[in-house]
Recover the amino acids of this structure.
């Protein structure tokens, strides 16, 4: 009898794995709707309760305010530059509303991001011949990312100053984060502090640990999610 | 035995909370390290049980946990009605037997789905999504059931001392587990964990 209980649990587990793709969608939309009306916030503790999950690779991340935030652009450029938050805000802003897809499975529908197109900063700096990629570094001291120059020039790649129509909060990588709309969200580096134009693509933090460099949603990392952009 | 399993399970639960609850994740960070600790503790979890199989007393206890007697039905009925009497039980009451079987199965499912999430090349994407789904929801159930298990233990100091020292006093055993003595006459006696 006890043995049957153990085997029964195993059977349920296998059935759960097999049926997840049918159950999960319904459960997610139900919980999403419940979370909208839930004043206690308890639904956010349930799996797939909708919303973002916080990932940081370091133990703590310093706070940067409008006063001490700086974004540097250097490497293979003719005019290296340093931007303050106000300088970034003064540039033309682009707003995109796309789904956010994490490589671990969660997806947040219709999330607005706004900021400066990366291509604008690259053009202002003057990319030198021979450059082929862009490397991003972050003031958490550990995270890094890379895009090919061609990817970096897409018009859906932003230096994001706002997310969900609010200034990007510290937890979401504020005051300034990268936003690469068509790729898995690990490409959208938080706490962005440096943009370096390089000759070739250098692997970023997660790519060193096995993630794909060209992280197109639905076409990489062995996943088949619906494309976000 | 029980202590090793409890520490490993505790570590799994704590690291899971850190990986899962945004507030804890924000406070702790160090995602890679936490993931590694969670993985290692999870994989080691069955080891104390496997080592225990070498002990005859442990195997005898597994036999007791596996066997459901007619009086276990009486015990469950009484417990579900929240009445005190009658609650006939051997060394393990029906609730403990149910818990043991459920948690053993759940741990194996968590281990299997966890391994599929860890070694992503083992299975196609559909199976991995399913594993994540089961792992997430079952972890919630396991957390609640373990909280219940700990809650029962907090309420019973003699049983806790029994788990620590390996023996309980006779009046308590006669009161809480009246059918233990006749059971021991039939099966080889074993008192340690």
């Amino acid at each position: 009898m006890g043995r049957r209980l153990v085997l029964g649990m195993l059977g349920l587990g296998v059935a759960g794995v097999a049926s997840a793709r049918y159950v999960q969608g319904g459960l997610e939309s139900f919980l999403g709707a419940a979370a909208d009306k839930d004043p206690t916030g308890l639904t956010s503790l349930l799996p797939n309760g909708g919303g973002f999950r916080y990932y940081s690779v370091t133990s703590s991340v310093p706070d940067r305010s409008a006063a001490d935030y700086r974004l540097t652009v250097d490497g293979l450029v003719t005019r290296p530059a340093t931007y303050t938050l106000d300088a970034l805000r003064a540039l033309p802003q682009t707003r995109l509303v796309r789904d956010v897809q994490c490589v671990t499975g969660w997806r947040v529908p219709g999330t607005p991001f706004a900021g400066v197109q990366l291509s604008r900063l690259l053009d202002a700096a003057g990319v030198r011949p021979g450059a082929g990629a862009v490397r991003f570094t972050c003031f958490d001291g550990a995270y890094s990312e890379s895009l090919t120059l061609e990817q970096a020039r897409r018009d859906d790649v932003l230096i994001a100053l706002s997310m969900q129509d609010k200034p990007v909060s510290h937890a979401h990588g504020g005051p300034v984060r990268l936003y690469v709309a068509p790729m898995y969200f690990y490409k959208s580096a938080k706490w962005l502090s440096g943009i370096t134009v390089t000759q070739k693509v250098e692997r970023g933090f997660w790519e060193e640990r096995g993630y794909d460099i060209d992280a197109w949603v639905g076409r990489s990392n062995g996943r088949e999610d619906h494309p976000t952009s | 035995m029980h202590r090793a399993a409890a520490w490993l399970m505790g570590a799994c639960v704590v690291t899971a909370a850190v990986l899962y609850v945004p507030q804890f994740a924000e406070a702790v960070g160090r995602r890679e390290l936490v993931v590694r600790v969670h993985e290692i503790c999870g994989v080691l979890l069955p080891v104390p049980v496997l080592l225990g199989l070498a002990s005859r007393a442990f195997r005898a206890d597994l036999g007791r946990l596996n066997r459901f007697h007619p009086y276990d039905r009486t015990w469950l009925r009484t417990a579900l009605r929240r009445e005190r009497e009658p609650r006939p039980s051997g060394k393990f009451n029906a609730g403990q037997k149910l818990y043991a079987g459920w948690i053993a199965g759940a741990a194996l499912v968590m281990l299997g789905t966890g391994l599929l999430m860890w070694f992503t090349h083992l299975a196609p994407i559909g199976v991995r999504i399913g594993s994540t789904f089961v792992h997430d929801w079952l972890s919630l159930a396991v957390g609640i059931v373990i909280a219940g298990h700990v809650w029962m233990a907090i309420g019973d100091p003699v049983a806790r001392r029994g788990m620590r020292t390996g023996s309980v006093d006779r009046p308590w055993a006669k009161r809480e587990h009246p059918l233990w003595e006749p059971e021991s006459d039939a099966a080889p006696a074993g008192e340690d964990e």
In short: The helical segments of chain A are 2-36, 85-90, 118-125, 149-152. Chain A has four helices and ten strands. The radius of gyration of chain A is 20 Å. The mean pLDDT of chain A is 84.
